[in-house]
Design a protein that fits this description.
The complex is a heterodimer of chains A (about 280) and B (about 80). By secondary structure, chain A is of the alpha+beta class. Helices cover about 45% and strands about 20% of the residues of chain A. In chain A, the strands form 2 sheets. Chain A has a 6-stranded mixed sheet. A 5-stranded mixed sheet of chain A has the order 3-11-10-7-8, with no helix packed on it. In chain A, helix 1 packs parallel to helix 3, helix 4 runs antiparallel to helix 5 and helix 5 runs antiparallel to helix 6. The radius of gyration of chain A is 27 Å and the shape is elongated. With about 80 residues, chain B is mainly alpha-helical. Helix content of chain B is about 65%, strand content about 5%. Chain B has a two-stranded antiparallel sheet. The longest helix of chain B is centred in the last third of the chain and has 27 residues. The chains are: A alpha+beta (about 280), B mainly alpha (about 80).
Chain lengths: ~280, ~80
C-alpha cells in the first residue's frame, strides 16, 4: 500500500512536487498507509494535474487543431506514387490516428471523472467529464465542417482511387453508340494497396453515374475478368467494365457503394464523412 | 496562534470537527491558501514545515468569521420561530 501511495504522490505536477514534495512525504510517513489514503492522494494528484494543465490544455487544443487540419490536407491531397500516376485514398492514416487519439482522451476523461466522483470531488469530476465531452463535440464539429468545405475530388483517367486497400484506376474509355444508348467500355486496372492481405469487392459494388445523378449498373460480361476478382498484395489485374447509358447521358463517372466500418466516416480526410461529396472517377 | 505543520493540522482539524482529512485534501487546501497569500511557510530545517497566517489571511478570516457569525445568529433566530 505504501508503494501505491508513493506512486500516486509521484503523479502530482512537477512544480508542485518541487515546492511541497518533501513536506508531503513527511506527512505520508507520519500518517501510515491505507486504501483510503491511497485513493485520496491519487484523486488529488489527478485534480491538481487537471487544474494545472490549463495552459498545456490550450497549447494541446491548438496543436490538435493543427494536427486535424494537417490530416485533412494529407487525406484530401493525392498520394503520389513514385514513377506512377496519382493514387487517391478513401481515408487517411493520419486522420485515423487523430480519431483514435480522441477516442483515448474520451475514455481516460471518463475514467478520471469516475475516480474523482468516487472520492467525492464532484466539481473536479464534472470538469473532467466536460473536458472529455467537449473534446468529442469539437472534434465531431470539426470533422463535419471540414467535410462540408472540402470540394469533390474527380479522379482523372489514368489516376487511381483506393477503397481501403482495394484500388481501381480507369486507363481508357471507349464509347460505341447502340441505338438510343451508348455503350461505354472502361479499361481498368484493379490492384491492392495492402502489403499482406488480399482484397476483393462485391460484384455489384461498382456502378456508373452521370451529372444528373442517374445510376447505371455494370453489365456482367463473362468474357472478361470479373470486378469481384481477389487481388493479392502487390498484384494488379486489368479488365473491362461496361455500362449502357442513354445518349443524353453526359459527364459519366465511375463510383461504388462500399460499406465501411461505422467509425471510418468520423475520420478527418475520410471520403465517407457525412455531408462530404464522394470522390468520382472520370469516364468521359 | 501556534504554527502547525501538515500532521498537526490534520490532528487539530479532527479534534474540533470530528473529520479526518486525507493528506491529498489537506495539501490541496494548503496549496490554495498559500497561492492566495493567506498562509506562509515558516523556515525550519526539518522536512515537516509549519505554516502561519499572513496579515491578509488574518483579515480574510476575520471577514469570513463575521459573515459566519451573522449567518449563525440569523439561523438560530429563525430556528426558534420555526
Amino acid at each position: 500500500m505504501k508503494l501505491l501511495i508513493r506512486f500516486a504522490a509521484k503523479l502530482y505536477p512537477r512544480s508542485w512536487s518541487e515546492r511541497y514534495g518533501a513536506e508531503f512525504d513527511a506527512l505520508l510517513d507520519d500518517i501510515g498507509a491505507n486504501p483510503r489514503i491511497a485513493l485520496n492522494v491519487l484523486t488529488e494528484a489527478i485534480d491538481m494535474q487537471v487544474q494545472r494543465s490549463k495552459t498545456i490544455g490550450s497549447a494541446g487544443l491548438i496543436g490538435a487543431a493543427a494536427l486535424c487540419l494537417t490530416s485533412w490536407w494529407v487525406g484530401q491531397r493525392p498520394y503520389i506514387t513514385p514513377g506512377t500516376r496519382l493514387v487517391f485514398h478513401q481515408d487517411s492514416n493520419l486522420g485515423a490516428m487523430v480519431g483514435f487519439l480522441v477516442f483515448l482522451v474520451t475514455i481516460v476523461g471518463g475514467l478520471v471523472s469516475s475516480i474523482l466522483r468516487q472520492d467525492g470531488r464532484i466539481r473536479a469530476a464534472k470538469r473532467a467529464r466536460w473536458a472529455s465531452a467537449g473534446t468529442v463535440i469539437v472534434y465531431l464539429a470539426a470533422v463535419l465542417l471540414v467535410s462540408l468545405l472540402t470540394p469533390r475530388t474527380i479522379v482523372s483517367i489514368g489516376d487511381s482511387y483506393c477503397y481501403d486497400t482495394w484500388c481501381i484506376g480507369v486507363q481508357s474509355v471507349t464509347a460505341a453508340p447502340q441505338g438510343q444508348n451508348v455503350l461505354y467500355t472502361a479499361r481498368v486496372r484493379i490492384f491492392s494497396d495492402a502489403n499482406r492481405v488480399s482484397a476483393s469487392r462485391a460484384k455489384d459494388f461498382l456502378y456508373a453515374r452521370d451529372d444528373q445523378g442517374r445510376r447505371f449498373l455494370l453489365i456482367q460480361d463473362s468474357s472478361v475478368i470479373p470486378a469481384d476478382v481477389t487481388i493479392n498484395p502487390n498484384e494488379s489485374v486489368e479488365t473491362s467494365l461496361m455500362f449502357l447509358v442513354p445518349a443524353n447521358g453526359r459527364k459519366l463517372y465511375l463510383t461504388g457503394d462500399y460499406p465501411v466500418m461505422p467509425w471510418v466516416p468520423l475520420y478527418f480526410g475520410s471520403d465517407t464523412s457525412p455531408f462530404h461529396r464522394r470522390t468520382l472517377l472520370r469516364l468521359h | 496562534m501556534v504554527n502547525k505543520h501538515g500532521y498537526a493540522m490534520m490532528e487539530d482539524i479532527e479534534r474540533f470537527t470530528g473529520l479526518r482529512l486525507g493528506p491529498g485534501t489537506l495539501y490541496g487546501a494548503i496549496t490554495r491558501l498559500e497561492e492566495r497569500g493567506w498562509i506562509k511557510p515558516v523556515k525550519v530545517e526539518d522536512r515537516r514545515r509549519p505554516y502561519t497566517l499572513t496579515a491578509a489571511g488574518r483579515e480574510y478570516l476575520k471577514t469570513q468569521l463575521g459573515v459566519l457569525e451573522r449567518v449563525l445568529k440569523t439561523a438560530g433566530r429563525r430556528l426558534k420561530h420555526a
